[in-house]
Design brief:
mainly alpha, about 70% helix
Length: about 110
């Protein structure tokens, strides 16, 4: 998939994909002979995961850690560390929900 296809499918702009690559959140894709980025099918779902995690209040550093833990867990079949990290963020998510509910009521 080319960069524009991934961006469209993930609901972000092209610069976002490039930024995620620079930050190490998205693996640098292979390049075609003409130099175009050639993403695999997993790129768009990963970008959607990153955006969703940001919406939930995770920082890019925390997201990078979650992605690394997810990759490690998928290789080792152990997920407790990933679950602990996500659970630690739950109070902040709950607070955000309370704030948004209060804004809606106002």
């Amino acid at each position: 998939m080319r960069i524009g296809d991934v961006a469209r499918e993930a609901g972000v702009n092209i610069q976002t994909l490039r930024y995620y690559e620079r930050r190490g959140l998205l693996a640098e894709p292979a390049r075609s002979r003409s130099g175009y980025r050639d993403y695999d099918e997993s790129a768009a779902p990963q970008v959607r995961f990153i955006k969703r995690a940001q919406d939930l209040g995770f920082s890019l550093s925390e997201i990078a850690e979650l992605l690394e833990l997810r990759d490690r867990a998928s290789r080792s079949r152990s997920r407790p560390t990933t679950r602990r990290l996500a659970a630690a963020k739950m109070p902040a998510i709950d607070e955000k929900i309370r704030e948004l509910t209060a804004m809606r009521a106002a």
